[in-house]
């Protein structure tokens, strides 16, 4: 296996770990998706066919089995002209021993959010950095996973559809496609054109260019930091560069 493939494998493990963590906290993740769907629906028409941001969120929500009632309620709230406004803010920081963290938030109270994020870092062995101190070490990436195909079959489908991707990785009965964010829909449409409509993962994420491994003690501290951040009501996504292992 090439080094680039090993690196992608580690990144996929991190995504699986993150997804498993969210799956174990369904009420929290449903609430976060409800807020994100509402914000996306207000950015344009509350119709995923004409609102790209909304379509992305709904594709992600599908892989987390977010109930239709929650999706419909968020969209109806946006249609109803709710005056509830949220700011999309990104915070960057550091955990133990070279670990880096990006925190994306949706908030209706910026002062509350920045105070809570800063406190979570401080109480769990980390510290906040300035804007840009971490993000340059990550790449915005579309990640789409599916089952029932080999990497060669997936490559053929994408070539037939003339869709460029960064990498294709076969991992534990799944094939994972890494692509530019702008190709998120193009990759999915290529699969849907051949009858593939179910995806194990459909994410727009931030992947670290280089992962770091932590000692057992540092990793325990780091996981407490991530948990504390993800527990915050205003936090939507937490990205990091730590290799969580198998």
TrEMBL record:
Indicate the segments forming the TACO1/YebC-like second and third domain, all copies.
Answer: 86-242
Spell out the Gene3D superfamilies in the cross-references. Answer: 1.10.10.200, 3.30.70.980
UniProt biased composition (Basic and acidic residues): 1-22
Sorted alphabetically, which Pfam families does this protein's record hold?
Answer: TACO1_YebC_N, Transcrip_reg
The subcellular localization recorded is:
Cytoplasm
Q: Which GO terms describe its cellular component?
A: cytosol
- Chain residue ranges for the region called Disordered: 1-24
A single Gene Ontology biological process assigned to it is:
regulation of DNA-templated transcription
InterPro entries cross-referenced by the UniProt entry: Integrase-like_N, TACO1_YebC-like_2nd/3rd_dom, TACO1_YebC_N, Transcrip_reg_TACO1-like, Transcrip_reg_TACO1-like_dom3, Transcrip_reg_TACO1_YeeN, YebC-like
| Entry annotated with the keyword Coiled coil | no
Keyword set for this entry? Answer: Cytoplasm, DNA-binding, Transcription, Transcription regulation
Give the Gene Ontology MF terms in alphabetical order.
DNA binding
Q: Which parts of the sequence belong to the TACO1/YebC-like N-terminal domain? A: 10-81
Q: Which HAMAP family match?
A: Transcrip_reg_TACO1, Transcrip_reg_TACO1_YeeN
Name the NCBIfam families on file: PRK00110.1, PRK12378.1, YebC/PmpR family DNA-binding transcriptional regulator
> What is the similarity comment for this entry?
Belongs to the TACO1 family. YeeN subfamily.
Q: This protein is called what?
A: Probable transcriptional regulatory protein BkAM31D_03415
């Amino acid at each position: 296996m090439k080094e680039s493939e090993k690196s992608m494998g580690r990144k996929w493990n991190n995504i699986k770990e993150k997804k498993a963590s969210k799956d174990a906290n369904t009420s929290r993740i449903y609430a976060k998706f409800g807020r994100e769907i509402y914000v996306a629906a207000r950015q344009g028409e509350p119709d995923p066919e004409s609102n790209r941001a909304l379509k992305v969120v709904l594709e992600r929500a599908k892989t987390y089995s977010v109930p239709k009632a929650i999706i419909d309620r968020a969209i109806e709230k946006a249609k109803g002209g709710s005056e509830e406004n949220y700011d999309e803010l990104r915070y960057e920081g550091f955990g133990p021993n070279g670990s880096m963290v990006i925190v994306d938030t949706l908030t209706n109270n910026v002062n509350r959010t920045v105070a809570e994020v800063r406190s979570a870092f401080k109480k769990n062995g980390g510290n906040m950095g300035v804007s840009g101190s971490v993000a340059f070490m990550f790449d915005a990436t579309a990640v789409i996973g599916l089952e029932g195909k080999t990497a060669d079959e997936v490559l053929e489908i994408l070539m037939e559809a003339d869709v460029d991707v960064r990498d294709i990785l076969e991992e534990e009965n799944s094939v994972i496609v890494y692509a530019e964010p702008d190709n998120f829909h193009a990759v999915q449409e290529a699969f849907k054109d051949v009858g593939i409509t179910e995806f194990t993962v459909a994410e727009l994420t931030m992947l670290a260019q280089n992962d770091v491994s932590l000692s057992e003690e540092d990793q325990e501290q780091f996981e407490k930091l991530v948990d504390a951040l993800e527990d915050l009501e205003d936090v939507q996504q937490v990205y990091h560069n730590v290799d969580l292992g198998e």
